[in-house]
Amino acid sequence: MTETHSKSRQQAEIAFGHTQSQFFARGHAVEEMESIVRTREEKTLRLREARLAKEAQIIATASTNLIAKRARKT
Predict the structure, then answer these.
(1) Which tens digits make up the pLDDT trace of 5-57?
(2) Full-model pTM
(3) Which residues, 6 or more positions from 5, have their beta carbon under 8 angstroms from its beta carbon?
(4) How far is CA 41 from CA 25, 34, 49, 52, in A?
């Protein structure tokens, strides 16, 4: 059964469809931005952890070298 609607009803349905499309497009854009932010934060965390590990290794190596140098002097 096909329903026939008045012209104003059809225009309202079309306008509502456009509004719904914009709403869902905005939601999709927000999800995409959140995904980008989450990815950036994860990468920043990985890089920070790698930097801290490298710094800890440098400090440990320097400490070991200093202890060895002092041991040789005595």
Answers:
(1) 788 888 888 888 888 887 788 888 889 999 999 999 999 999 999 999 999 99
(2) 0.57
(3) 13
(4) 24, 10, 12, 16
Question: Rounded to whole angstroms, how far apart are CA atoms 60 and 55?
Answer: 9
Tokens representing 47?
A: 């890089």
Q: Cα(17)–Cα(23) distance, rounded to whole angstroms? A: 10
Query: If DSSP codes are grouped into helix, strand and coil, which group holds residue 5?
Result: coil
CB 19 within 8 A of CB 27: no
Burial track 1-29 (b if 16+ CB lie within 10 A, e otherwise):
eeeeeeeeeeeeeeeeeeeeeeeeeeeee
Question: Contact 13/5 with Cβ under 8 angstroms?
Answer: yes
